Amino acid sequence: MTLVVTGATGHLGRLVVENLLDRGVPAAGIIAVGRDLDRLKDLADRGVQLRAADYADSASLRAAFTGARRVLLVSGSEPGVRVQQHHNAIEAARGAGVELLAYTSIVNADTSTIGMAEDHRATEALLRASGVPSVLLRNSWYVENYTDHIGITLERGVLFGSAGEGRVSATPRADYAAAAAAVLATDGHAGKAYELGGDDAFTLAQLAAEISVLSGTPIRYTDLPEADYIQALAGNGVPQAFAEILADADQGLRRGELATTSGDLARLLGRPTRPLKEAVNAALDVVRPA
Ligand SMILES: NC(=O)c1ccc[n+]([C@@H]2O[C@H](COP(=O)([O-])OP(=O)(O)OC[C@H]3O[C@@H](n4cnc5c(N)ncnc54)[C@H](OP(=O)(O)O)[C@@H]3O)[C@@H](O)[C@H]2O)c1
Questions:
Q1: Which residue from 9, 204, 249, 287 could staple onto 151, CB 3.0 to 4.6 Å apart?
Q2: Residue nearest to atom 7 of ligand 1 (CA)
Q3: What's the gap in Å between 77 CA and the centre of ligand 1?
């Protein structure tokens, strides 16, 4: 059985490949797809097949998916062109006659009013129309969206956001990756839409409290109106357009659109999702002086 993982040069895709190997999937049966194969050399050394493809280049996708039985399409990261790119990938998967195409969407994609959910909804519609057997991995936030900046949060003593008392089902990428690997490596997922998130959703104030307790540095959550949050992000070097996307997502978070109580992720993992405490401690280990 040949399993294809796109976005293998990215954080999630690489973790999916690692998870497949850890599950005992033969390396020769895994095809890691990326734009820059030099970055995947270590996987080739372990026997994983590499194929180069760009979502913007249909011919490269067709070549990458040839012989594939199941494909994970990791959503692209370029706003404005993603839907066309995903369309190219779906058509390539259709041409290859894949048995299953898994797509990383956003949690609550059916109803989410977050701007970035639109591309995911459009892609899900393309998947349905294509007739390709598919499964939707509707991921909530990666906890790394917060923990990657923990050093700055500690320096300032403040966590900024615009999410009010909204709760987010954030959990480490590794959990989403393990679930994606399980979906690729096991049967019975075609036609499913999994709402994926951590077992215990939290507010940003609760996140600040957790960081305070675990670091010993008091961190307060400061909730800003959307426009002020955009300004704060832009003032800290975040490009304006991306600042607007992030602030818009926080409004969705505020409305509960990034939370799920489905339990789908834990079920796919066969274990509870990683606790917030563990993720915060891991991030603190990185920034703590040795
Ligand atoms: N749930 C969340 O919190 C969250 C947060 C951020 C992003 N996301 C979404 O989830 C996806 C995976 O997350 P991640 O952390 O793995 O992101 P990432 O590290 O930025 O990886 C994105 C992957 O997509 C590939 N890609 C982007 N455009 C492409 C194109 N035109 N052709 C071929 N490959 C392309 C990238 O290839 P290169 O290495 O060549 O650029 C990379 O391998 C992201 O792309 C984004 O859609 C979700």
A1: 287
A2: 77
A3: 5
Q: For residue 104, how far is its CA from the centre of ligand 1 (angstroms)?
A: 10
Hey, where are the domains in the chain? 3-140+172-196
Residue minimizing CA distance to atom 1 of ligand 1: 141
Residues flanking ligand 1, CB < 6 Å: 7, 9-13, 34-36, 54-56, 74-78, 85, 104, 139, 141-142, 145
Torsions phi, psi for 265 (to 5 deg): -65, -50
Section 181-206 average pLDDT: 98
**Could you tell me the maximum CA-CA distance found in the chain, to the nearest angstrom?**
56
- Contact by Cβ (8 Å): 110, 44: no
pLDDT per residue as tens digits for the range 135-164: 999 999 999 999 999 999 999 999 999 999
Residue 290 pLDDT > 80: no
- Exposure b/e, 77-104, CB count within 10 A at least 16 = b: eeeeebbebbbbbbbbbeebebebbbbb
The span from the CA of 27 to the CA of 230, in Å, is: 44
